[in-house]
Design a protein that fits this description.
Immunoglobulin-like; 2 domains; 4-stranded antiparallel sheet; 2 helices; globular
């Protein structure tokens, strides 16, 4: 083998190693789990006898996104569509609970679970979003956590017992 061929061969080997190194250092997030859930405007899907009652436009909707983080926690993001400009949407999770054990007979703990999700998102007349980190995994939130996903109407006083004031209500991450 000549020196010229040896240099060429070594150059090819070096190039191949660099190419493999760059491709293997790519996006580590590709292996992280992500799930999303769409929620429609509350027209009585959860409680047929108690649909939303208020002045908010009924073209409102929400997407709940659970994105696994490298530390094993979950980034919980809520994307809202058709928001009211300048109004703050209160969004949170309520743990399921036996209605016979709650003060007002609700099937959930009336205090939001801030460890899972409790955020405010300011509307802008279009789409708006907010996020919070939860220490639970995507799998725990989407399979074992029993709770409700709630978005309150920013045009009404917040009530944790009057479901007719909820723009969105449904099972959390289902």
């Amino acid at each position: 083998m000549t020196i010229k061929n040896l240099k060429f061969s070594l150059s090819l080997v070096l190039f191949a190693l660099l190419a493999v190194g760059f491709t293997s250092c790519g996006d580590d997030d590709a292996d992280l789990e992500s799930k999303s859930y769409n929620y429609a405007f509350h027209t009585g899907q959860t409680v047929a006898t108690a649909p939303y009652s208020g002045d908010h436009a009924d073209n409102f909707s929400a997407e709940l996104v659970l994105q696994e983080m490298e530390n094993g926690n979950t980034m919980v993001t809520v994307n809202l569509s058709n928001t009211v400009d300048g109004e703050t949407y209160r969004i949170h999770a309520h743990d399921s609970q036996d209605a016979t054990t709650t003060p007002n007979g609700t099937p959930y703990n009336e205090t939001p679970n801030g460890d899972i999700l409790a955020i405010g998102v300011e509307g802008n007349g279009g789409t708006a979003s907010g996020s919070q980190e939860s220490e639970m995994t995507v799998t725990e939130l989407s399979t074992t956590y029993e709770g409700f996903f709630v978005i309150h109407d920013p045009l009404q006083d917040i009530s944790t017992t009057d479901i007719t004031t909820y723009l969105v209500v449904g099972s959390f991450a289902r």
